[in-house]
Structure formats: structure tokens, C-alpha cells
Structure prediction request, 226 residues.
Amino acid sequence: MKNCAPAVAALLLCLLLPCLGWAEPTYVSDIMEITLRAGPSNGHKVIAMLTSAQPVEVAETREGWSRVKVLAGEGAGRAGWVLSRLLMTRLPWKAQYEAMRTVNEDIKDRYANFDQRWRELAQREQNLTRQLDEATRALDQVRGEYEELKQGSANYLKFKEEFDRTRADLEAAEKNLQQLGSENKSLKYSQNIKWFAAGALVPLAGWVVGIVMGRRRNRRYPGMYH
Prediction:
């Protein structure tokens, strides 16, 4: 992956530089390495080694040599001279292939992560669906119990109303019974008095009758009792 870094950087520069209004970059050709020298000849000092597809910016060309500035990779920012025939204006095919392969591998990795994430989300959705079904069943059960409780409450209220009415009737009956008991007791007391009076009058009447009868006898036979 590290070996593909220059190719990827070159590909990105190829795409971005025209958009930014900069000069179109030039690339080191398919030759694996070329020398960056201090001057336009093989006798000048080697400043750096440039690899295939490494992007450079050409400042001038002279007698088969080009003065360039390294844009990325090894020796980035340095300026020097390279053979013009070792440069090309397009990204080398090998570099394009490596860059596209890197992008493709990155897409595969992203897809693998996405697929794993999708599986996790699908499993989570199944769990949530199961939990939702369980919650729905529990809610239906609670609703059923609520309806039963509501019906039971209605029956209880009806029963309580009947109970209160029956209790009121019972209290009225007890009150009436107490009143009847009082009246019965008073009646018995009056009857007892009458019978007592009647019983007392019988001897009294006998005594009075005896006196009256005795007087009558005395009048008829005055000498018999003297």
C-alpha cells in the first residue's frame, strides 16, 4: 500500500490541479527511477532520485533537459534538472493501474465494513421488531385487564348502589320494627293495666254487692240479726 502512495498522490494532483487553475503536472515516465540533477547535464550533482509517476512541475526546457520542481513524494519541494524524454504529461499506465487498484481495494474494504454494518443493523432491526411485538402483546394484555377492571368497577358500582339501597331499606325496616316494638310494648302495658284494673274491680264489686245484699236482708228481716 505504501508503494502505491506516489501513484495515488499523482492521481489526486491530476484531478485537483486543473480545478485550482494550476499548470497541468508532468510525471516521471514508466522508468523505475531517474536522477534529479543540479544542472542540465549528466555531469552535475545528483540531488534526488525520482520514481515512476512522481509528479513534477516543468519550469523551463533547454537542450533536452527540463528544470522541474518536485510536487510530491521523495524530494518534494526540491528543484533540479531531469532529461526531458523521461517525462510525460499523462499519468503512466502502471501508476494509473496501481492507483485504481488501491481505490478499488479501499472500496472493497468500505463495502465489507458496510456489509458488516448492514448485517448488524438488520439484526438490530429484527431484535427491535421482536421487542415491538412483545410490547404490543403486553399492551394488548394490559388493555384487556383494564377492560376487565373497568367492567368489574361498573359491576362494583352497581352492586354498591344496590347494597346502599338495601341497607337503607333495612335501616328503615329496623326503625319501623323498633317503632312497632315500642307500640307493642305500650299496648301490652295498657292491656296489663286493664286486666289489673279488671281484677281489682271484681273483689270490689263483690264487696259492694255483699254490702248491698246485706242491707236488703236487714230491711226484710229486721229481727233475725239482733
User: Anything to note?
Assistant: The first helix runs from residue 5 to 20. Residues 19 and 71 are 16 Å apart (CA to CA).
